[in-house]
Amino acid sequence: MSEKKQPTKILDVKDLKVSFKTYAGEIQAVRGVSFDLYKGEVLAIVGESGCGKSVTAQTIMRLVPSPPSFIKEGSITFDNKSDITKLSERAMEKIRGSEMGMIFQDPMTSLNPTMTIGKQIAEGLIKHQGLNKEQAAERSVEMLRLVGISNPEGRIKQYPHELSGGMRQRIMIAIALACSPKLLIADEPTTALDVTIQAQIIELMQKLQEKTETAIILITHDLGVVADMAQRVVVMYAGKIVEEGSVDDIFYNPKHPYTWGLLKSVPRLDLEHKSDLVPIPGTPPDLFAPPKGCAFAARCPYAMDICLQQDPDKFEVTNQHKAACWLLHPDAPAVEPPVGKGGKVHA
Amino acid sequence: MLKFVIRRLISMIITLFLITTVTFFLMMNLPGDPFGEMSQKMSAAQRAVLYQQYGLDKPMFQQYLQYMGNVLKGDLGVSFQYPNTSVNEKIAQSFPASLELGLWALLIAVVIGLLLGIIAALNHNRGLDYAAMFTAVVGVSIPSMVLGPLLSYYVGVKLGWFPPGLWDTPKHRVLPAIALGFSTVAILARLMRTSMLDVLNQDYIKTAKAKGLSQTSTVIKHTIRNAILPVITVLGPIFVNVITGTLIVEQIFSVPGLGKHFVQSIQTKDITMIGGLTIFYSAILVVVIFLTDILYGLVDPRIRLAKGRK
Asked: Tens of pLDDT along B239-291?
């Protein structure tokens, strides 16, 4: 897990705000998210269901249906070129699939059941690289071989229901990578798979990433996957980034109580003393009307008066490790992180 | 696939056998006399001759066996109301007009219905959606006995665009076909819209978009084919319904079709005609549903395989 930052910036998201219009009012799903991504890097976005991580990722590809969603504020600069939030649908079509690829959560439903695998891979190639059907079919076979599917010549004539979940996720990866995109967004790529298959898919993604140098945004709530793949981690809660840093920062020196909560709720087999899993009590706030102060304050065992009054800014721990928590304010009382020890054993 | 076809064929034969049997006993137990008013003018001797000639004097079970034997040979018997005319001849005479009218109506219904459904779904909760669904509700609500005369009078007589009745030239087909197909347009439009909306929310549509496909090719290649499956299911029965003649539309436009024979045969207790038409109708229905299943398999590979493996 070495730090290898390359200077080329692929993606720069600045103060992104995405809302959904409903009859009941406006749901503020993403409330000011900023992060960047460099070539060949794997960035993980973690957080519980409904924290806005998927919306953030799908907004980068402009895949969230609009209406009801709309980008309220902010910019997404891709590949140092234009701002994604302002591109026309036609211009987006050129970028989707060719420069950005996406893998979804459930491989059982993300492939068209009435179209052969081969055709589904070839579609993007025909559209973006101007290949004819034969060339695209040839390239599809190559892609299948690349993602480790045996007998690719036979497989391209099969339909999705003839394949297992793991194989289908491999197909999804093949589709996403067919045109060698600069950015791959993997939206919970292993959540719907069983554990042994999860490991294979992660391994495959790592291998392909090393080969192609594609930048990856990995969305997950599985911290095990994060530790395996990512170099940097962004922790999201209620539509905001609460902590960001390198994998080591997040696992061994977490600063935000929400990150502590996440780490405590991961089963650990490597500790000397058995410890019970500790869930985070309560539920995330209603995003119709987000609280005035810190969104996590209501569930936070360390909450102070100011947490309920004012949303904390990001405090820098190091120049790449930041957390939005009043506990990091110089005047705040010192709190011993409950998970630090567990991590530090292996540090 | 072959196994599936054979099994379906066997169940088709059993279905037809049961329908024929039930129809036979039901119509034999109809009150009244099959020769209607004529019989009152006849003497007992004349009547006995007539009954003997038609085999009505024999025990019910024997009649049944004979009838079944004839049906097996494809002979549906002789009409009681049109002496010297067999039911087969009547069907051969009247069915072509009904079939043609039905096919036109179905063509109109499928083309317009699917288009309306697709347009409505793609403009979900916007003006075009409401407009299309309004048309559909109107289509369901206006019965053909209202729409038929309106079309015949305003478009046929007043505007004179198309002939208001009769069945001679292709132009004569237009108004009755619209009158007959309109309610089916509505059914298909609503079904297609629901189905399209369902498919548009599927993950694989998002995958298609993530590949960079345009809205048009996403809809054509990924949405319609999947959305059309439930429509195919109802298409079979609808097809049979429109081709076997409808009394109302055929009467309004004076189409020499099968519809009026259905109604007349019941009114006049023309036993062989009722039986013959029922068997004919059922046979078409059963065959069409069978064909629909095969068509379904062709469109949806999952079904094709599942059935092949059984």
From this structure: 888 887 677 888 888 778 888 888 888 777 787 888 888 888 888 888 888 88
CA distance to partner chain A, nearest, from residue B223 (Å) = 9
Q: How far is CA B244 from CA A42, A105, A167, B145, in A?
A: 65, 49, 49, 17
Query: How close is the nearest chain A Cα to the Cα of B199, in Å?
Result: 10
- Indicate the pTM of the whole model: 0.77
Cα A166 to Cα A172: distance, rounded to the nearest angstrom: 10
Interface contact B211-A123, CB threshold 8 A: yes
Task: Report pLDDT for B36.
Answer: 65
pLDDT tens digits for A276-307? 777 888 888 888 888 888 888 888 888 888 88
Contact A258, A243 (CB under 8 A): yes
Q: Among A170, A280, A226, which residue's Cα sits nearest to residue A43?
A: A226
Most A CBs within 10 A among B200, B207, B229, B231, hence the mutation to make, goes to B207
Calculate the average pLDDT of chain B.
82
Q: Does the distance separating the beta carbons of B302 and A123 come in below 8 Å?
A: no
Backbone torsion region of residue A62, taken as left when φ is above 0, otherwise alpha when ψ lies between -120 and 50, otherwise beta = left
Mean pLDDT across the stretch B214-219?
A: 86
Domains and CATH numbers, chain B: 94-268 (1.10.3720.10)
Q: Which pLDDT score is estimated for A271?
A: 66
Residue A190 CA to residue A192 CA, distance in Å, equals 6
Q: Which of A94, A110, A159 sits opposite B212 (nearest CB)?
A: A94
Q: Does B301 touch chain A (CB under 8 A)?
A: yes
> Which of A61, A102, A110 to substitute to test the interface with B, most B CBs within 10 Å?
A110
Cβ pair B301:A124 closer than 8 A: no
Which of A112, A161, A169 is the best substitution to test chain B (most B C-beta atoms within 10 A)? A112
Give the chain A residue nearest B225 (alpha carbons).
A114
* A182's tokens: 């600069």
CB atoms within 10 A of CB B69: 10
Q: Are A326 and A307 in contact (CB under 8 A)?
A: yes
